[in-house]
Write a structure and sequence with these properties.
Layout: E1 8-11, E2 22-28, H1 42-45, E3 51-55, E4 59-63, E5 66-71, H2 92-100, H3 107-125, E6 128-138, H4 140-151, E7 158-162, H5 176-179, E8 183-189, H6 197-209, E9 213-219, H7 227-242
Parallel strand pairs: 2-3, 2-6, 6-7, 7-8, 8-9
Antiparallel strand pairs: 1-3, 4-5
Domain Phospholipase/carboxylesterase/thioesterase: 120-237
Keywords: Signal
GO molecular function: hydrolase activity
Length: 246
């Protein structure tokens, strides 16, 4: 099992009804996880309410010479924990070789392309409501959700960020006018040492000050996804799907 831009896992609701247009949750794992991580949590959230699409990060990790899950790349690591400058930009020789080989020069673009391709495949296979597509990420996956959601607010109904952060290296409010219709829910463990609570609060305050509607909830946990988090996500998603259009 290695990096594969098409690696994905799908959650099909219990007693799937093909005549009903389901909300789609695009599920983005944390560093060290894989496409199955959040798909496995779907039954605790809801057996019946959503279609889930779990995607795999493009970088394979190893620990002690053994596979240790996947990562989304340096662009999505927490600003306090990024590696040194050698990770900030690819070496020119590596960049040139990728371009000459016909590969994507920008790894963030490649992640976006893979995500949109996965959504299209899911919509062909299952009945998905095109205006109820949500990005749901944890840790580094939440950083991916923030970046793609804020960069393409017209393509998504909302973002759920679990123990996440807004990544650096892009302008989160470049599409400020469209972003005001994007709904965001941030959930954070009060004891999260890797991504401190105060940093998450600063991100939320920045978005709120810009006029975005952002819900924020703290939990007595560190980095784990708790049943209470999943229950609150379910309730929030139902509210978004049943709320009148502005």
């Amino acid at each position: 099992m290695g990096p594969d831009p098409n690696a994905e896992a799908t959650f099909v609701p219990h007693r799937y009804e093909p005549n009903y247009a389901y909300p789609l949750l695009v599920l983005l794992h944390r560093r060290g996880g894989d496409e199955q991580q959040l798909v496995d949590a779907m039954p605790t959230m809801s057996w019946r309410n959503y279609v889930g699409l779990g995607l795999r990060g493009p970088e394979a990790l190893t620990r002690g010479g053994r596979p240790a899950g996947f990562d989304w790349g340096p662009a999505f690591r927490h600003p306090r924990r990024r590696p040194g400058p050698q990770w900030e930009e690819p070496e020119p020789s590596g960049l040139i070789s990728r371009v000459m080989a016909g590969g994507p020069a920008d790894p963030v673009d490649a992640i976006e392309d893979a995500l949109f391709a996965g959504v299209r495949r899911t919509m062909r296979a299952l009945h998905v409501h095109s205006e109820r597509i949500f990005l749901v990420g944890i840790g580094e996956g939440a950083a991916v959700a923030y970046r793609i959601g804020l960069s393409h607010p017209d393509r998504f109904a909302g973002v759920v960020a679990i123990n996440g952060w807004i990544p650096r290296g892009f302008r989160p409010l470049a599409r400020w006018h469209e972003c005001r219709s994007l709904r965001i829910l941030a959930l954070h463990g009060l004891w999260n040492a890797r991504a401190p609570l105060q940093d998450a609060r600063k991100d939320v305050a920045m978005l709120r000050n810009a006029g975005l509607r952002v819900g924020f909830r703290g939990y007595e946990s560190a980095r784990a996804i708790t049943p209470m988090m999943l229950s609150d996500i379910d309730s929030w998603l139902i509210d978004q799907c049943t709320a009148p259009v502005d």
